[in-house]
Input
Amino acid sequence: MTENVENDYKILKLGNPILRLTAKELTKREILSTEVQELIPKMWDIMNKAGGIGLAAPQIGISIQLAVIKLESDSDRYDNLEDSDEFIVFNPTLEVIDEKKQGFWEGCLSVPGLRGYVERPRKLKIKYLDQNAKDKEIIVEDFLATVFQHELDHLFGLLYVDRLNSTKDLVFEDELTDMASEKLLD
Ligand SMILES: [Zn+2]
Output
């Protein structure tokens, strides 16, 4: 698990087989280990430098069930957030609460330059362990639900391109119309 942690912050791209693995669940003891605790700020750092709103550990070559998500709260797209807009998620499980689909133009740090219109269930219950290895259970909906599903897919070997209804819904981001970009996830 350690090989890539120290200095190599390269974000893996579509085609790298590590992105296609189901990532390993961590024990509570492993979550609390120095190694994993030190990885968390590195994940934030890599995500911020890359300009993402989420990052999953497999994207940097570490195949463990860890993802971080941070939404800027100053946008009206994020008005469903309650007490926190930062999430550190270990060993998640997802349960769909509302099957009704919603679509966003998704982007991914592992698929640079492209956007895809993906429809996903609009409301879910997420159970996970936080950075203190404490059980968490949250309800996510609307845009946040899509962000969670996108990031947690990374822990199960899936990318948004697998969720496209049609390859016609995959475009280069500089070809997106103004209207389409209103639904941008980046
Ligand atoms: Zn992604």
User: Anything to note?
Assistant: DSSP finds four helices and seven strands in the chain. The longest strand covers residues 86-106.
